[in-house]
C-alpha cells in the first residue's frame, strides 16, 4: 500500500448526553469522501480515542468500514497504554478488512527503542496489515529513532509508512535518507512544504476534517504540480489556522471547525471543554479568510473541489 494524498483523522461526533452519535459519524465520513480526501483514519487522537472505551472503538471501526466500503482506504488506530489492548485493536482491524493500521508508541511507559520496537512488532503480528507508524514524542514521551526503525523494518515488511510528528527536521532528513522504503506522511502541519520537498507524498492532517479542499490544494500544488511557489502562497494562507489549532485547544477547535462546515459534532468529552464565544469568533474569521485566500490562488485541478465544499 502506498500512502499518497490527504489522510484525515476523523472526528467522533457525540450526542447531547455525551454518547457517540453514529448517524452523525456516518455523515462525517460521507462528507470526507465527497470532499475527495485520499484516506480516513479512525481511532486517532483527533477522534478522541483516549476518552473512549474499547467497545466504542471497536464498534466505530466496524461502522467506518461499513460506511466507507472500498471507496477510500481505512486506517484503524491501535493506540493504547497496554500492548495487549493495542493487539486487540489490531485484530479487530484485520477482522473488518481495514486497509492499514496506525501504530504509535505506548504513552507514559517510556519504553526503550528495543522495547518500543517489540511493542510495534506485536501489533503488526496481530494484524498482518500495512502499518503506518506514528511518531509523536510530544504526546507519547519517547521518539522513534534509528534503532527502532532498523529493528522493525528488518523484522517485517509491513512497516510501509510513518506519520512523523516530532517537529524535528533532522528526523525528517534521517527518514528520507536512510529509510526510503518508509513512505513519509507529514504529521507536523506547519512543516508540510518541508515534508513535500523531502519526498513526502501524503499529509495526515486534522484540519482536513473541515477545510479538506484547501489541504488537497496544497498537496496537489507541491506533490502533483511540483509548483512550490504556489504551495508557499497556499501555506501562507493556511498558517493562521495552524497557529490557532496549536493554541492549546486542538480537538475542540477541529470540532468547531466541523460545525462551521455544517457537520454535527456534539462537543468534546472530558477533560476537554468547548471553545468559548470569543475563540469561536476568532476561528470563524480565520477559516473565512483562509477559504477566500486559497480560492484566489488555486486555478487548476483543485478548483472544482474548493467550490464544492465551500
Automatic annotation (TrEMBL):
Cited InterPro entries: Aldolase_TIM, DapA-like
Pfam family, one: DHDPS
Keywords, in A-Z order: Lyase
Record has Lyase as a keyword: yes
Family stated for the protein in its record: Belongs to the DapA family.
Protein known as: Dihydrodipicolinate synthase family protein
